[in-house]
From TrEMBL, chain A:
Compositionally biased residues, Low complexity: 1-21
Pfam families, A to Z: Ras
Family matches, as NCBIfam families: small_GTP
SMART domains: RAB, RAN, RAS, RHO
UniProt superkingdom: Eukaryota
PANTHER family: PTHR47978
Protein name (database record): Small GTP-binding protein domain
Region (Disordered): 1-24, 214-242
UniProt keyword Nucleotide-binding, yes or no: yes
Keyword field: Nucleotide-binding
UniProt-listed InterPro entries: P-loop_NTPase, Small_GTP-bd, Small_GTPase
GO molecular function: GTP binding; GTPase activity
Lineage: Eukaryota, Fungi, Fungi incertae sedis, Chytridiomycota, Chytridiomycota incertae sedis
Automatic annotation (TrEMBL), chain B:
This protein's record includes keyword Cytoplasm: yes
Domain of life of the native organism: Eukaryota
Keywords tagged on the record: Cytoplasm, GTPase activation
Chief place of localization: cytoplasm
Function: Substrate-binding subunit of the Rab geranylgeranyltransferase (GGTase) complex. Binds unprenylated Rab proteins.
GO cellular component: cytosol; nucleus; Rab-protein geranylgeranyltransferase complex
Any Pfam family hit: GDI
Annotated organism of origin: Spizellomyces punctatus (strain DAOM BR117)
Name of the protein in question: Rab escort protein 1
Region annotation Disordered: where it falls in the sequence: 145-180
Biological processes per GO annotation: intracellular protein transport; small GTPase-mediated signal transduction; vesicle-mediated transport
Similarity comment: family membership: Belongs to the Rab GDI family.
Length: 242, 614
């Protein structure tokens, strides 16, 4: 990933494209967002949620509480003529005692495995999560290894960039170092993932069992959308509120 | 993608070849279960290092069956602190869902009788299709030579496997020596899976336990069976096999709860396609709408009118008490007879609408009970699909439990699976009323304790909990053709004596459509709520329908159900209802527990749409 002149600019430009994506979608009726399930993994306190909050809301909270309160976050991202809607799943702390449910990985098209560049043990943990994903998740899953807390590079780096990069290359992962605190490289992680996801394949397989995320109503492969049915809670067409 | 795919492949191969075997002294089934639950080999060490800083909770919940999971998530949602533990390393308890290997191992191999979960399973019998030479060659991946065109159907009579699972000499004509190539393919498979050989042996009830791979003769009559099993096992991970398959009523309280809580967003469902009823040896499609009733050719017009009149009344039966009050506490079947319904229509209402399939039930349920069951079914029609039911993808109870547990975690609930419990003690101190001690030494206290009946053995000595045991007999059959032509997701009800079965049986067919199995197969789950049911009841049905499953696994689930929910003021027991075809009782149990612990709130009350985080 080439370094950008300014991380803040990169963040801003991506946010712009994400904002304008909504407008484009309305202009081009056939341009429906492609839903992509993305799961977060990594040791506790490496900044998984902070990275996502930076990506989704472009904000950072110092001393954030351990994750509670959000089932998943969503963010749109525009790539060429396509709009990707990330549905980002946080572990909700269930990884801590190795009690993540199989459901968590199910049909995930992308995973961001996070470690803390100041803590070498967190990279080992990240590697074990990568192994789990490669064994248990969808075989075509796009995995990005992200070393967080790049802002602490000067004072506390514990994992040499080259070491993590070499591992990522060998294991076939996207790799970058980022800082949720400053925003450095955070947006890039998600755009690089978007570039690597086989979107056309995803569109084609939509609605098949074991395929992509669910569609609405009973249309997509006969799936029933509980909320879209009569008496459902938010029965608006398309089911997309954002 | 290339390297990752190769890596994945290598890893799978390593696993298959048992390369990890030396790592730990966990028994093999446990290790596989652990693998499935994504628990890494050094799991135990890490738990010990990572003790929870918080040790007191408003509620500790034991077991991740559906009732417990709904309770845990509703409490967390209402702001209570929750610790949710399970001694197993998978979610779902008796509703768990496994790949084929794990399924077979849980039921057949290295049973840990000290774990009440395992102790609940018995009466295991495995029957494999006998298989022909063609099938052996096909499954071994060998192209048939052009000149072996003489057709030998790849079937064998199921009846040949009766009354005992043979393992004996094939009766399906002489098995000719397969080509050296196919033999070596099978032997290679077995060599790579040396750890499976004992499983194969026990599965096949081999009369000669001294047989080893090396001694396997190409003309071994068991070879076709090995081949079929070996072939299925190579696809193991494409199977999601429920221990206790379930359906959801379209307008039942569970579906409503999934919608109102938002938990349904984690789940995927399909509509059940059709319901069949076995009547005088034939399976008939059960009409799912008024139009279906009237377009049905085989029912007389008089009967159609009587049926419609009855169904119209039953939807809102409470409004017309004068019609049924004389029969209110008398058997439903007497009331139906009094309505001048024909025996066929009575069977239709009793078995395929009220789902009172057990012989005793169908004769004893009262009119009020029967009408309530009928009403529940009718109200669920016309919402999605052509039947009253939804089918969950990837397994019902297991997925639902996982979804509620995730929701609980999102609201701060803490999860520890694979947590063997050594003792539970009870004290007078209201702040630490219950103390749960794990066998790793971890101690947690709580003000409330909610537990599945699997943990009754951990209670203090002298504490009497009155338990009733319920046994359900089951069979899981993997088919290569559907039970009825062109069906995927379907239920067939076999009332007592309707076919060659003496006991009532419900058969749920799942398919690739709900990711239950690879595309070329179907999974037929048969179960009988009757305590008198035997394997023979299932075998008779499979045989009469000319189904020749590749493999059939018979087993029983025996679950303890407490006769009272609250065994102490703050201690609730919930049982796993493995008998019913639906989950409604789990929701009722969960609501009752929630209302006692959080009396002023509605379960999942105040949930708003913004929880998307959008």
């Amino acid at each position: 990933m080439a370094a950008r002149p300014s991380a803040r600019d990169a963040a801003a430009s991506l946010n712009n494209s994400a904002t304008s994506a909504g407008g484009d979608a309305q202009n081009a009726a056939n341009l429906k967002p492609i839903q992509v399930k993305l799961v977060l993994l990594g040791e506790a306190a490496v900044g998984k949620s902070s990275l996502v909050l930076r990506f989704v809301n472009n904000e950072f909270q110092e001393n954030k509480e351990p994750t509670i309160g959000a089932a998943f976050l969503t963010q749109k991202c525009k790539l060429d003529d396509k709009i990707i809607k990330y549905e980002i799943w946080d572990t909700a702390g269930q990884e801590r005692f190795h009690s993540l449910a199989p459901m968590y990985y199910r049909n995930a098209q992308a995973a961001v495995v996070v470690y803390d560049i100041t803590k070498p043990a967190s990279l080992d943990k990240a590697k074990s999560w990568v192994k789990e994903l490669q064994r248990q998740a969808n075989p075509n899953i796009v995995i990005a290894l992200v070393g967080n807390k790049l802002d602490l590079e000067a004072t506390a780096r514990g994992v040499p960039r080259e070491e993590a990069q070499a591992y990522a290359t060998e294991a076939g992962l996207l790799f970058s170092e980022a800082s949720a605190k400053t925003g450095d490289n955070v947006m890039d992680v998600f755009t690089e993932i978007a570039k690597k996801i086989p979107l056309d394949q995803l569109l084609a397989s939509r609605g098949r069992a074991g395929g992509a995320a669910s569609g609405s109503g009973a249309a997509a492969g006969g799936r029933v959308d509980l909320n879209a049915g009569p008496g459902g809670r938010n029965a608006q067409p398309g089911g997309c509120a954002c | 993608m290339g390297p990752s795919a190769i890596f994945n492949h290598l890893h799978t191969m390593m696993w298959l070849s048992g390369a990890n075997d030396q790592r730990e002294r966990l028994s093999r089934p446990l290790r596989d279960l652990r693998d499935r639950a994504f628990i890494r080999p050094n799991f135990k060490g890490e738990t010990n290092l990572q003790m929870l800083e918080q040790t007191h909770f408003d509620a500790i919940v034991l077991g991740t069956g559906l009732s417990e999971s709904i309770i845990a998530s509703s409490l967390a949602r209402a702001g209570k602190t929750v610790l949710h533990l399970d001694r197993n390393i998978f979610y779902g308890d008796h509703f768990a869902c496994f790949d084929l290997k794990t399924f077979l191992r849980v039921l057949c191999v290295e049973r840990d009788e000290t774990n009440p979960f395992n102790a609940a399973y018995g009466d295991v019998e495995v029957v494999l299709r006998s298989g022909s030479k063609e099938e052996v060659e096909r499954l071994a991946g060998i192209q048939k030579r052009e000149n072996t065109a003489n057709e030998e159907p790849a079937t064998s009579e199921v009846a040949q496997d009766l009354p005992t699972d043979d393992g004996a000499v094939e009766t399906n004509g002489p098995i000719q020596t397969p080509t050296p190539n196919s033999i070596s393919t099978i032997l290679d498979f077995l060599k790579q899976n040396a750890n499976l050989v004992p499983v194969f042996k026990s599965l096949l009830a081999d009369p000669d336990p001294s047989v080893t791979i090396a001694s396997l003769d190409p003309s071994d009559p068991l070879l076709p069976k090995y081949t079929i099993l070996a072939h299925l096992l190579t696809q193991s991970r494409q199977f999601n096999i429920d221990l206790a398959p379930k359906l959801l009523y379209n307008r039942g309280p569970l579906v409503e709860l999934l919608i109102s809580s938002g938990v349904g967003k984690y789940l995927e469902f399909k509509a059940l396609e059709s319901v069949y009823l076995s009547w005088q040896g034939k399976c008939e499609l059960v009409p799912g709408s008024k139009e279906d009733v009237f377009s049905n050719q085989s029912v007389s017009l008089v009967d159609k009118r009587r049926l419609m009149k009855f169904l119209t009344f039953a939807v809102e039966y409470e409004a017309q008490p004068e019609i049924y009050q004389d029969f209110a506490t008398r058997p439903f079947i007497d009331f139906l007879r009094d309505q001048k319904l024909s025996p066929r229509l009575i069977s239709f209402i009793l078995h395929a609408i009220a789902f009172a399939v057990d012989r005793a039930d169908s004769e004893t349920i009262t009119t009020v009970q029967g009408l309530a069951l009928t009403q529940r079914h009718l109200q669920s029609l016309g919402r999605w699909g052509k039947t009253a039911f939804l089918v969950a993808l990837y397994g019902a109870g297991s997925e639902l439990s996982q979804a509620f547990c995730r929701f609980c975690a999102v609201y701060g609930g803490i999860y520890i699976l694979n947590f063997p419990i050594s003792t539970i003690s009870i004290s007078e101190d209201p702040d630490r009323r219950f103390k749960v001690v794990g066998s790793d030494g971890g101690e947690y206290t709580s003000s409330w304790l909610v537990t599945s009946s699997n943990y009754v053995g951990n209670l203090p000595q002298g504490m009497n909990v009155d338990m009733k045991s319920t046994r359900v007999l089951r069979a899981m059959a993997i088919l290569d053709k559907p039970i009825h032509e062109d069906t995927n997701l379907t239920v067939t009800v076999f009332p007592p004596d309707s076919n060659s079965n003496t006991q009532g049986i419900i058969a749920i067919q799942q398919s690739w459509d709900v990711s239950a199995c690879p595309k070329e197969y179907y999974i037929l789950h048969l179960h009988s709520p009757s305590p008198q049911a035997t394997h023979q009841d299932f075998k008779a049905i499979l045989s009469s329908l000319s189904l020749d499953p590749l493999i059939t696994v018979f087993y029983s689930q025996t679950v303890q159900v407490p006769s009272t929910m609250w065994v102490a003021d703050h201690l609730a027991f919930v049982g796993s209802n493995v008998v019913d075809v639906d989950f409604e009782s789990a929701v009722l149990d969960a609501k009752a527990v929630f209302e006692r612990i959080v009396p002023d709130e509605e379960i999942f009350g105040g949930v708003v749409a913004e929880e998307d985080g959008e």
